[in-house]
Design a protein that fits this description.
The protein has a domain of 97 residues. It contains 19 helices and 30 strands. Helix 4 packs across helix 7 and helix 12 crosses helix 16. The chain has 731 residues and is of the alpha+beta class. The protein starts with 9 loop residues before the first strand and ends in a 5-residue tail after the last strand.
Length: 731
């Protein structure tokens, strides 16, 4: 049936308000006294780079200190994450965020989040209570901080983490479909990110993880690389310790109460984004009978679940209430329509076990315990690279995988009215693509296919259904496997060398045909001859002084944007196709377009890469502005799309001609497990978001020069390097 006439149930009410409706305000005196007592049980040390080390008697007290310290470093990103996750973003950003808020509420309402919290086991509720306490105590003791929309945090708010990670799954659901369905013709434009280098192939966002077993290391200890590729300043560095067995160090997404990618004394865990199919769309045949909505399922009609949510939208300085009726079937929320049918989206959404899994992961001490933790099966959008002090290394391609009927094509929406299309539970983890202690002694994943995760000892594609591992190979995966297969006697420093190896395998494919084409034309064209002399001896590696790198970067982008048509995001396949099929004339045409653009923008084509590729941090804003007129630093790193393991995504921003880094190597750690764990780490810029802080940009030069800092992990080390020691609320 047609759906455009009656599902847009929106009411408008103008209210003169200045505080978002979900907020609660200041703490009462009893809460202040209680939190002050709690703060006395927590110690925070800050090292010379501002990294917080939190010590407390219980896990919950440690979480209290953890969130307090996070708020000191970047409260605005914590608040932004929860405004987004809880569906309150429109209350501060206006109509452009309405579709995002609807999407959040479709999967969890406030009432459902409260119910999930109340039904959670006591130990999880204690952690959630501590989360709220830490943030609320920070706001109480820092009255100068003015929240945009949340002036009081609630213990049920972490329930909006779909899988223990902010936005891991739900972001895959297109906002346009939600906007068209629930808002219709009055829909505002969905807010765009500040990206003025739009391309059909977006900058890769993912991660690298590598684990090397003792048989391949010089010390006989396990080595581990933690290398998330995210937006810069998306995660901070933290160390959290309790007397209940917690001693986790690593990266935390602002507002999480657990270390998301990191290590303890015995184990390490690194997540990489997966393309495993863990979401499905179901076509729902909806009809209206006696003013009620029903959907067909087998031979019966089932009632469509409907619920009306109040979403507050900032309009001209006032908050306006929109009452929007949301719809669900047993498959999941209705996220769009296709013709006369509605589409329900099924995905992992069970926050209680997800949060339990995420926290318990940080306390595992061996492979047996880690495998038991994986049985929770709630880490859906991630692969996991694992290492431990006992010498085990492992790779797990996903964790949450629905069991599907092979007679349906789940790459497309399937008929929801056919009960045979329903998920039949989840695959056991033993059935998933994984590698445990391979003979070669190493595992890796760079958002690449799992069928090269252990070189010759990798799983075989033929043994698994397609939906378990549709991930194509990429140039980062090619690069990592090449280096790992050629190496042995690895050390902490040589693993770091691997992580920053400057080779760019994409141009090993893309440039030889271009050099060959130039060799036939260059002598008749002075500019082309100069370019030929510049690139023909280039060794396909990133370097700040390299002119060839500048040409290569923009040549590769020109090919991807204007010369290839590839379904999906298989950049490797796209570039290989172009290199093998493009004529000499086509390659020269693309090159000349690049050279002309460089001359137009910069006055000359032969710029060293570091003159174009820069690092800059000016304000600490969530959307960081950039300016060619302000100081910036030259960077020799390159995009992960070219196979750079040390990924550095850069682009032009509004008003700039130079490229500024915004994504890629954000937090990096190399770890050695032995009698005592040893590690080195780096952040892209600094720990703090306040430009007045000494830790706002104090790691920038070290980031560029690859001067990693030594981790203080043990208490005596922490106390030796600490520059300040305090309790929450005392500063």
């Amino acid at each position: 049936m047609k759906t455009t006439h009656w599902h847009n149930n929106i009411g408008w009410f103008c209210l003169m308000m200045i505080i978002a409706p979900w907020t609660k305000g200041a703490l009462n005196q009893a809460d202040v006294d209680r939190l002050t007592d709690r703060a006395e049980r927590v110690e925070i040390f800050r090292d010379g780079f501002g990294v917080p080390h939190i010590y407390a008697p219980t896990d919950a007290d440690a979480v209290f200190g953890m969130l307090y310290a996070q708020a000191e470093d970047d409260f605005k990103r914590i608040e932004q994450n929860y405004l987004w996750a809880t569906g309150q973003l429109a209350s501060v950003e206006g109509p452009s965020a309405l579709a995002s808020d609807i999407r959040a509420r479709l999967f969890m309402t406030r009432a459902e989040a409260i119910s999930a919290y109340q039904s959670a086991p006591p130990n999880l509720r204690a952690l959630c209570d501590a989360f709220a306490d830490g943030l609320n105590y920070f706001l109480h003791t820092h009255p100068d901080i003015k929240p945009r929309g949340i002036d009081h945090f609630e213990p049920w708010m972490p329930m909006y983490f779909s899988e223990g990670s902010i936005g891991g799954d739900i972001e895959r659901i297109d906002l346009k479909g939600i906007s068209d369905f629930y808002i219709g013709e009055s829909a505002p434009q969905v807010a765009a990110r500040a990206d003025f280098d739009v391309a059909p192939f977006a900058e890769p966002r993912g991660s690298n993880g590598i684990a090397i077993a003792p048989k391949q290391t010089a010390s006989g200890n396990t080595l581990f690389l933690i290398n998330p590729h995210t937006s810069f300043y998306f995660r901070g560095e933290i160390h959290v310790v309790s007397e209940e067995g917690l001693n986790a160090y690593g990266a935390v997404t602002w507002g999480q109460f657990f270390v998301y990618q990191g290590f303890n004394e015995k184990t390490g865990w690194m997540h990489t984004s997966t393309r495993l199919d863990f979401m499905d769309d179901f076509i729902e045949d909806v009809t209206e009978v006696d003013a009620a909505l029903w959907y067909r399922y087998g031979i019966e009609l089932r009632p469509v679940e409907s619920l009306t949510e109040s979403i507050w939208v900032l309009e001209a300085g006032e908050l306006v209430e929109r009452r929007i009726t949301l719809y669900r079937t047993h498959h999941g929320p209705i996220t769009r329509s296709e013709g006369e049918y509605w589409i329900a989206t099924a995905m992992n959404w069970d926050p209680v076990p997800a949060l339990i899994q995420s926290f318990e992961r940080t306390k595992q001490t061996n492979l047996e315990g880690f495998l038991e933790m994986l049985e929770v099966k709630r880490n859906s959008s991630n692969n996991t690279v694992y290492a431990d002090a006992n010498g085990s290394v492992a790779y797990f391609h996903g964790n949450f995988v629905p069991r599907r009927n092979p007679s349906f094509d789940y790459d497309l929406p399937v008929p929801g009215w056919n009960p045979r299309s329903d998920w039949q539970g989840l695959h056991d983890i033993s059935e998933l693509v994984r590698v445990i202690d391979p003979t070669n002694g190493w595992v890796q994943n760079c958002n690449s296919t799992p069928f090269t995760s252990a070189g010759a000892f990798s799983p075989e594609r033929k043994n698994y259904p397609t939906y378990m591992a549709p991930d194509p190979e990429n140039f980062r995966g090619v690069h990592a496997v090449r280096l790992l297969e050629a190496g042995n006697n690895w050390t902490l420093d040589s693993l770091l060398d691997l992580a920053y190896d400057p080779a760019l395998p994409a141009f090993e494919v893309l440039f030889p045909p271009l050099v060959d084409a130039l060799s036939k034309r260059a002598l008749s064209d002075a500019r082309l001859n100069a370019v030929y002399e510049t690139i023909q001896s280039w060794r396909y590696s990133a370097d700040a002084d390299s002119v060839a790198m500048t040409i290569a970067h923009f040549y590769g982008l020109q090919v991807l944007r204007n010369e290839v048509t590839v379904v999906g995001r298989d950049e490797k396949g796209a570039l290989e196709s172009f290199a093998s099929t493009a004529s000499d004339d086509q390659q020269i045409r693309v090159l000349n377009a690049v050279l002309d653009d460089l001359v137009e923008r910069y006055g000359l084509w032969n710029l060293p890469w570091g003159e174009v590729n820069r690092l800059q941090r000016l304000t600490g804003d969530i959307v960081e502005p950039h300016s060619d007129d302000q100081e910036s630093l030259p960077v020799g790193l390159a995009s992960g799309r070219w196979g750079a393991l040390a990924s550095y995504g850069s682009k032009r921003f509004e008003g700039t001609q130079k490229l500024y880094g915004y994504s890629g190597n954000s937090f990096v750690a190399v770890v050695e497990f032995g009698d005592r764990v040893r590690a080195k780490t780096m952040l892209a810029g600094g720990q703090a978001s306040d430009p007045q802080s000494p830790h706002f940009f104090d790691q920038s030069t070290r980031y560029i020069e690859r001067k990693f800092k030594d981790v203080a992990y043990y208490r005596e080390e922490v106390e030796r390097v600490a520059t300040v020691r305090y309790r929450p609320g005392s500063r």
